[in-house]
Amino acid sequence: MKKRLFVATGAYSCGKTTTLRHLASTRGHRVHGEAHRRALDELGARTHGHPPDEPFRRIDATEHVCPMCRKREFAARVLETQKAIEAEAQSGDWLERGYLDPVEYYLRTSGEVEYPWPPGEPAFERYALVFLFAVMPELQAPRWGRSREERAAEAERINQRLGALYREAGFEVVDVGPGTVAERAELLARRAQLGGAARRA
Question: By the 8 A CB rule, do 35 and 122 touch?
Answer without folding.
Answer: no
